[in-house]
Amino acid sequence: MQVRDPIFPKSSVQSIVPFPLLTPPFADKTLFPTGFPADSHPVVVQTGYQNDIRMANLQIEALLGGNIYVPYTDRLKDGKTPFQYPVRNYIGGIDGQSQAYVMALIPSLVGTLEGTTIFVATFAPNNDAYAPIASNPNEFTAEVKQVIVPNPVSGPGVIPEAFDFDFVTARTSKYTPHTFHALVNQPQILNNGLCQRNLYYFNETFAAPAMRTGNVTLYGPTAGSVPQQLAGRYVKQEGYSASAETVGYNAETCASAAAKTDPKALQ
Fold it and tell me: What SS3 state is found at 71?
């Protein structure tokens, strides 16, 4: 696994996105306090634990999710309205390793039918977004593996690594919470011609926000399913963790999704 420059060249990112890329507002000091390298483009990699998802009738109490996406994608081709282009979406259950990917099959199929291609995955930890390592409670890890051929009876089957994190709390950061709120709340482009708003609100008393720094490894198609253009180990990356209230909406036209995005979620 090669160690890559922590910045994604814009040409590499554009090669995996079927829409033009916008130039992000790098001069906006509330979003990019120290600017951003020229001829590069941000890529977001995230994991999350989704609790209270109201799927008790399917016996699903919670789900784990992992995503790789490209913000500031010009879906409307108007030169100004930002969207997320999903590179990979992963989902898994929490009810034991042998059942995690089985439970995830139902929402995975539903999501694919509704315009979001979702891959079933296993997660470590299996009951939270990330976990401290045994030797250092201030260092955290998270790992996502795509389930290609499950084999819960005699072995793990074919489950290659997709991506993983290793991080600590940052003493200083190049970004602000507002940066990440603005990135994660851009409407997502679906594969059926529509878009969707999934808004995260971080203004609750239990949000517990923290700026992070650490390493991210994206495993290429020889191991997982991440495009080769993004594969590599990226060191000294900047990140953010917090609890949020999520509000999802049905698919709609992309113009409508952009117009109805709540500005309060972007703050």
Answer: strand
Task: For residue 127, give the nearest of 161, 102, 150, 93 by alpha carbon.
Answer: 93
pTM of the model: 0.89
Nearest to 44 by CA among 82, 77, 81: 82
d(CA 205, CA 109): 34
Q: Both ends of the chain: CA-CA distance in Å?
A: 37
Beta bridge partners of 222: none
What whole-number distance in Å separates Cα of residue 102 and Cα of residue 92? Answer: 8
Residue 155 φ then ψ, to 5°: 175, 180
- DSSP characters over 231-247: -EEEEEEEEEE---EEE
Q: Where are the beta strands (DSSP E) in the chain?
A: 3-4, 44-55, 60-73, 83-92, 119-124, 131-133, 136-146, 161-169, 188-189, 195-196, 198-201, 210-218, 232-241, 245-248
Q: What is the pLDDT of residues 165-214, one digit of tens each?
A: 999 999 999 999 999 999 999 999 999 999 999 999 999 888 999 999 99
Q: How far is the C-alpha of 28 from the C-alpha of 214, rounded, in Å?
A: 24
Exposure letters 175-195 (e unless 16+ CB within 10 A, then b): bbbebbbbbbbbbbbbeeebb
Segment 51-104, tens digit of pLDDT:
865 544 455 667 889 999 999 999 999 999 999 999 999 888 776 544 555 555
CB under 8 A, 24+ apart: contacts of 57-60: 58/106, 59/103, 60/93, 60/103, 60/106, 60/107
- Could you give the CA distance from residue 239 to residue 43 in angstroms, rounded to a whole number? 12
Q: How many residues does the chain have?
A: 267
